[in-house]
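RECORD TYPE: inverse folding
INPUT: structure tokens
STRUCTURE:
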């Protein structure tokens, strides 16, 4: 929405000072008040009737972020409910997707219009805001919602999805999943200390992390469940399932089969996607990076200690540990693979105590990393784990690390020769 143009229009309609209207409108937008709600609020403030005329009807595909408000006739694809904190108060919102024959669009309703998947409605004077670069409809006090004749849509009606189908921003989704992992945690929430559940869900298509913000007793390890009305956020570059107090949790009679393998991807594809949960990459190890082998961790936060100093807790007595940070390349891209103590011990062929003894004998901690590098650099490996991408690069925290065989060694030698110049 163009603030100056909208302020000019409002000032003309209401017969008030343009700059005063513009300042008020900007303040409301800065507080994340939906554009149409902000406009209607100012109409009421300055004595208008809150109307301003009925906006023209548009196909969903023609709605843009330049529209202040529109009228659309569409079918409700999904409908979800959750609570948000808005200007210090809790508000229940209703959200999902609408579609007509031309496309689909997200919506947020600030009032309960009783929308259900499969309903066809006409939403008059629906506000439009930009959300992650795309238009979204806002249905508020000034919006009229009425039944309409059924429209045919190419989109799937209803919220049932597989885990692999989920994307950040999805709302009103229904899942049938197996709870692989779950733990109780206490976090510093918006109302102080808050108990939550977190863990991993699985079905035949994928595995994803989840958070239950209103712990449900039925969510326990090994349970096969139907979850209705969850929403999806992005966490470390991957979709994360969010269970709320509006989510229904019901046990299933049969057991959900969990995917036994991670999603196989090329390194470049995984990195370009911004991250991936439970992914499998295959490539050649080009190098073992500094910070591998014997390390020390802070006893308070588990961060790696450098020269006896933790960046969060200052001088500490570090706790000995093992890890490997290695560069994996498959020709499409590179990623840093991080092995924890257990996997590092397997690669090293000894325990942490063995590594400490080795370092004492040689009077050099670096011999452990050197020994590991001699065994793994130039070989092809299959790595499974979760990939995150940030300003410092791409890192995969490995849960599995297996040598593929000799097939990739010729390619590895060629890559190493290219790196060495």
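DESIGNED SEQUENCE:
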């Amino acid at each position: 929405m163009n603030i100056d143009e909208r302020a000019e229009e409002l000032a003309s309609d209401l017969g008030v000072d343009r700059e005063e209207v513009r300042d008020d409108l900007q303040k409301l937008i800065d507080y994340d008040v939906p554009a149409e709600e902000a406009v209607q609020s100012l109409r009421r403030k300055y004595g208008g009737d809150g109307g301003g005329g009925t906006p023209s009807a548009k196909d969903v595909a023609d709605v843009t972020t330049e529209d202040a408000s529109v009228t659309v006739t569409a079918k409700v694809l999904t409908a979800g409910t959750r609570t948000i904190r808005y200007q210090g108060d809790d508000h229940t919102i209703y959200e999902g997707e609408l579609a007509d024959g031309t496309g689909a669009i997200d919506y947020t309703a600030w009032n309960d219009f009783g929308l259900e998947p499969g309903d066809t409605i006409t939403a008059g004077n629906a506000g439009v805001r930009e959300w992650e670069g795309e238009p979204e409809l806002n249905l508020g006090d000034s919006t009229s919602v009425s039944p309409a004749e059924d429209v045919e849509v190419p989109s799937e009606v209803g919220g049932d999805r597989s885990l692999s189908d989920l994307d950040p921003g999805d709302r009103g989704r229904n899942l049938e999943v197996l709870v692989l992992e779950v733990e109780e945690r206490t976090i510093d929430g918006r109302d102080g200390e808050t108990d939550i559940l977190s863990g991993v869900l699985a079905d035949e298509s994928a595995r994803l992390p989840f958070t239950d913000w209103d712990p449900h007793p039925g969510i326990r390890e090994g349970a096969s469940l139907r979850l209705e009305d969850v929403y999806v956020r992005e966490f470390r570059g991957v979709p994360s399932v969010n269970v709320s107090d509006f989510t229904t949790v019901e046990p299933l009679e049969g057991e959900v089969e969990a995917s036994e393998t991670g999603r196989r991807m090329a390194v470049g594809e995984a990195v370009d996607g911004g991250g991936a949960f439970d992914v499998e990459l295959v490539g050649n190890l080009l190098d073992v990076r500094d910070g591998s082998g014997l390390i020390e961790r802070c006893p308070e936060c588990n961060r790696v200690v450098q020269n006896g100093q933790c960046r969060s807790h200052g001088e500490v007595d570090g706790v000995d540990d093992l890890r490997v940070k290695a560069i994996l390349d498959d020709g499409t891209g590179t990623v840093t693979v991080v092995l924890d103590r257990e996997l590092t011990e397997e690669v090293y062929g000894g325990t942490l105590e063995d590594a400490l003894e080795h370092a004492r004998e040689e009077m050099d901690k670096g011999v452990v990393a050197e020994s590991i590098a001699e065994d793994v650099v130039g070989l092809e490996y299959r790595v499974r784990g979760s990939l995150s991408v940030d300003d410092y690069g791409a890192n995969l925290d490995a849960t599995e690390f297996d040598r593929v065989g000799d097939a990739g060694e010729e390619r590895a030698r060629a890559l190493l020769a290219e790196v060495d110049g």
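NOTES: The first helix runs from residue 3 to 14.
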